[in-house]
């Protein structure tokens, strides 16, 4: 890699680490950068997943105060995420690379729609929270939904955090920042489980992993401390632009 490419990967890691902590769409920043510098889609995806784990850990630690008293909830929903992530990672490594190249543009488009609709999702979540009682940990429906989100996270994972935060807000009556802390832990678990599988089985570009990890750790801390001050519309616009570039790059590669 050239120095410019190195700086681009580190910068993308910082942005992704911060975005993942705040809402969860960081893969839409790092993945297109890896494609742009010439990595094949599957190699880019697995390397990106491994590289973002330290940033996810950094963001989860930054929300440790919000996690106080949520151990049972984390254990229950964490089991769903764990099983889902294993399933998704296995699908990624089992299906041919051509299938990944065909499926991922659709997944990115879905993720971009979720990012754009996030304000409406948040309003709906608030309305649901205020409408009446709900099970303390969301009940079996939430467990199944989180399992499905874990599959998505293990396979690709862009906007996994958006999905998780929306589901948690709908099914659990809790302060949104405390739910964001749970979201960060579940996303960390999905990334970590997938990363372990990829390290054992997949072809990983370790220099890229190291660069993304350095950037993501910095971004994770920034996201947990000052990231909430970013204008939401600006953040969403950046994510959408980068995601569209990724789709174009995959479709016309």
Describe this structure in words.
Helix content is 81%, strand content 0%. It is built from eleven helices and no strands. Helix 2 runs antiparallel to helix 3, helix 5 runs antiparallel to helix 11 and helix 7 (139-155) runs antiparallel to helix 8 (160-171). It is globular and about 55 Å long.
Q: Mind sketching the topology for me?
A:
Blueprint: H1 3-22, H2 27-36, H3 41-62, H4 71-94, H5 97-116, H6 118-130, H7 139-155, H8 160-171, H9 176-201, H10 206-225, H11 232-251
As a whole number of angstroms, the C-alpha radius of gyration is: 17 Å
Relative helix content: over 70%
Largest sheet data: none
Residue-averaged pLDDT: 85
Please tag this protein with its features.
single chain; mainly alpha
Q: What's this, in brief?
A:
With 253 residues, the chain is mainly alpha-helical. It has helices at 3-22, 27-36, 41-62, 71-94, 97-116, 118-130, 139-155, 160-171, 176-201, 206-225, 232-251.
